Every structure is written in C-alpha cells, then in structure tokens.
Amino acid sequence: MKEKDSSMRTINIISVVIPVAVAVLLGIRTKPDLGEWTKILPHLNAVINSLTALLLIVGFYFIRNQKREAHRWVMTTAFILGGVFLISYVLYHLTNPSTSFGGEGAVKYVYYFILISHILLSLVVLPLVLRAFYFALKADYQRHKKLVKFAYPIWLYVSITGVIAYLMISPYYA
C-alpha cells in the first residue's frame, strides 16, 4: 500500500509542478538564446500532437478489438510522445517570446475558445493520463478502464485542439 501511496503522491506532485513550471516559463521576459533551431519547435509540437491523436485513435481501435499488446505498445508510444512534447514546448517557451494571434472578427473568438479549452483541459488530462498509465503498469485494469473513460476523450481533444491552435496561429510566427 505504501508504494501505491508514494506513486499517487508523485503523480500529484508532477501534476502540479509541470503546469506551474510552464506558467513561470511563459512569464520570463528575458529569454536565453539557444539558437535559431528553437524556432522549429512549434512545428515539431504540431507533428507530435498529430501523431498522438492518431495513436490514441489506433489504441482505441486495438483495445476494442482485444489486441491488448498492440494497444499497450501504441499507448506507451503516445505517452512517450507526450513527454517529448512537454520538453519541446518548454524549450520553445523558454527561448522564444509568445506569439500573438493576429486574426480578427469571429475567427479570433474561435481561436481563443480553442486555445483556452485546450490549455484548461491539458491541466485536467495530465493527472488522468499519469494515473491511467500507472494503473496499466500495475495491471490494475479495472481502475485503468474506469479512468480512461474520462482521460481518453480529453487527451484526444487536447491533442487535436493543439494542432488546430497551431494551424490558426502559425501564420503569425516571426
């Protein structure tokens, strides 16, 4: 039981520390210069989000068709991509100023709705995904299945809206 309590405590800490760290990074005015290569990171992030969304759909297909090993491989890959995304996202925002959306009229409201819902749900999905992954690793499939009923659609939404937000703001990157 202590291992489980410790793991849940670690998941809770990670679920708070990551968003706080990202918020702090977004507020840093003076950005270190790590080179021009950091300018490609938003494009990489869009690719990662696209692949994650695709993997989530494929993973859903596999589990619905009782292909557990394929499901495990695909979902582990999606989880790892989430980590790569986080590193890339942090590196970009550590080294580059935020880009302002230049659209006007109704499209501006659509963009901000997508962006704000994406950000808020990314905060919600982080602890859900970490717990779902933990339960799967511990072969606690009952709790895993119960949790992914919520985590899956939120994670899929966050992945897809990340790509949509990128496509909408990409013309405004410097």
UniProtKB/TrEMBL annotation:
Q: What superkingdom does the record give?
A: Bacteria
Alphabetically sorted, this entry's keywords are:
Membrane, Transmembrane, Transmembrane helix
> InterPro entries, from UniProt?
DUF420
Membrane-spanning parts: 12-28, 40-61, 73-92, 112-134, 154-173
A UniProt-annotated Pfam family: DUF420
Q: Which PANTHER family match?
A: DUF420 DOMAIN-CONTAINING PROTEIN, HYPOTHETICAL MEMBRANE SPANNING PROTEIN
Q: What is this protein called?
A: Membrane protein
